[in-house]
């Protein structure tokens, strides 16, 4: 019996996420607080994808899972930047953005747009905040005596991964929302490949964590 391609891709994504979580657990004790928060974010990804997989199988609709988890995801992501960007940590700017994002997400996803559809308003906000904070984080490496040493910093690679992921994710989800029920197979496949690549990259960062620096800049 041949497995439905949708469920096959879901199973592969769960496997990749599981490997990333297990890899992170091996170096968890040595992680700085920012990386630990990013690790919790990866665990959230595994949990949400597992629930989405079950919801798709049981109810043929998993968008509510993603729309709820995306709010928690952005909250944790803001906390990650709060503890990895010096000016954010000093003034708790990450916490401020996190709380605002939490409230904005709940209002939009539960009261303005449907929990059972693609919440384009919050999707845009999440992409904007994630990419903007990632760019701010990367800009701190310009001040290094030798910017080439940035490749040895864990908090250089994680923002790079986020920018890559969200640049494609926002574009692809926008196309999915535009096409609605007639989404080209290539768009869905590309979204899957972006998810796989993103989580494999995160797993590699966790694996090589002992060889990387974790400075707050």
List key phrases describing it.
mainly alpha, 217 residues, Rhopdopsin 7-helix transmembrane proteins
Short description:
The protein is an all-alpha fold and 217 residues long. Helices cover 76% and strands 0% of the residues. The protein has one domain: Up-down Bundle (Rhopdopsin 7-helix transmembrane proteins).
Number of helices: 8
Q: Beta-sheet strand percentage?
A: under 5%
CA(first)-CA(last) distance: 53 Å
Can you tell me the CATH architecture?
A: Up-down Bundle
Number of separate strands: 0
What fraction, in percent, of the residue positions are helical? over 70%
Q: What is the approximate shape? A: globular
Can you walk through the features of this model?
The protein has helices at residues 5-26, 33-59, 63-82, 86-91, 93-112, 120-139, 154-179, 185-207. With 217 residues, it is mostly helical. It is globular. The N and C termini lie far apart (53 Å). The relative contact order is 0.13. The mean pLDDT is 93.
Topology:
Elements: H1 5-26, H2 33-59, H3 63-82, H4 86-91, H5 93-112, H6 120-139, H7 154-179, H8 185-207
């Amino acid at each position: 019996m041949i497995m439905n391609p949708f469920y096959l891709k879901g199973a592969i994504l769960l496997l990749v996420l599981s490997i990333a979580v297990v890899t992170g657990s091996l170096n968890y004790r040595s992680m700085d607080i920012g990386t630990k928060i990013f690790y919790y974010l990866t665990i959230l990804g595994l949990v949400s994808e597992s629930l989405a997989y079950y919801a798709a199988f049981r109810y043929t609709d998993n968008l509510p899972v993603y729309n709820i988890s995306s709010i928690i995801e952005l909250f944790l992501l803001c906390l990650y930047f709060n503890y990895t960007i010096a000016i954010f940590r000093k003034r708790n700017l990450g916490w401020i953005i996190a709380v605002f994002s939490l409230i904005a997400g709940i209002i939009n996803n539960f009261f303005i747009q449907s929990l059972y559809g693609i919440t384009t308003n919050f999707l845009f906000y999440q992409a904007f905040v994630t990419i903007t904070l990632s760019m701010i984080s990367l800009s701190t490496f310009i001040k290094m005596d030798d910017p080439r040493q940035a490749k040895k910093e864990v908090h250089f690679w994680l923002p790079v991964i986020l920018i890559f992921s969200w640049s494609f994710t926002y574009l692809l989800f926008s196309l999915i929302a535009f096409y609605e029920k007639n989404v080209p197979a290539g768009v869905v496949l590309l979204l899957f490949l972006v998810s796989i690549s993103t989580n494999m990259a995160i797993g590699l960062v966790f694996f090589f964590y002992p060889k990387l620096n974790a400075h707050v800049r």
